[in-house]
Amino acid sequence: MTTYFGYPGSESSFIEGVRKALMDERKAYEFYGELWRYAPNRAIADRIRDIRMDEHHHYALFSQMLKRQIDPWEEVLEGQPAATSIPQFFKGVRRAYQDEVEAIMTYANLSLLAPDYAIAARVRDIMRDEVIHAEFFAELLAVAGLIDMEA
Questions:
Q1: What is the DSSP-derived secondary structure letter of residue 82?
Q2: Do residues 137 and 96 lie in contact, with contact meaning Cβ atoms separated by under 8 Å?
Q3: Main-chain dihedrals φ then ψ at residue 4, nearest 5 degrees
């Protein structure tokens, strides 16, 4: 077993994690492209569009990581992401919040599998963005009375 960033792991588990991150970031980008249209006001819509652009940037960073680890000519994406639909805005916000929290946990683990410090630091930077996104969506849910921020 190879050691990655001081932890036992394997190159394949890191690559699998990055591939999952790529698909998740792409799905988030597409989902937020729909969610912003349902926002109750322009300020919220603008913030969701900003988050969408962060997801696009994260996708590019994970693509670079993957290309460093595998043959640069290999196709990064496999298949098409599932279509998303948003029956109501806050249902979409709840999903966004849950997806961001899941991404935080995934990226925390992925950073431990990174083959070197620079890649681990980049994954943690992406994870910090996801924390900011989760906080934004949690605040929207709290304002709507759908979650208790004090709990």
A1: P
A2: yes
A3: -115, 120
From first to last of the 151 residues of the chain, give the pLDDT tens digit: 444 444 445 567 888 888 999 999 999 999 999 998 899 899 999 999 999 999 999 999 888 888 777 654 444 444 444 444 444 788 899 999 999 999 999 999 999 999 889 999 999 999 999 999 999 999 988 887 777 656 5
Q: Please tell me the pTM assigned to this model.
A: 0.73
Q: Identify whether the C-beta of residue 64 lies closer than 8 Å to the C-beta of residue 18.
A: no
- Six-digit token string for 13: 């588990």
Q: How far apart are CA 110 and CA 144, in angstroms?
A: 33
**114 and 5 Cβ atoms separated by less than 8 Å:** yes
Round the CA-based radius of gyration of the chain to a whole number and report it: 16
**17 alpha carbon, distance to own chain's centre:** 12
3-state secondary structure of 73: coil
Cβ-Cβ contacts under 8 Å for 99 (sequence gap 6 or more): 24, 27, 28, 31
The partner residues of 2 in beta bridges, in order of sequence, read 9
Instruction: Give the CA angle between residues 112, 113, 118 to the nearest 5°.
Output: 75
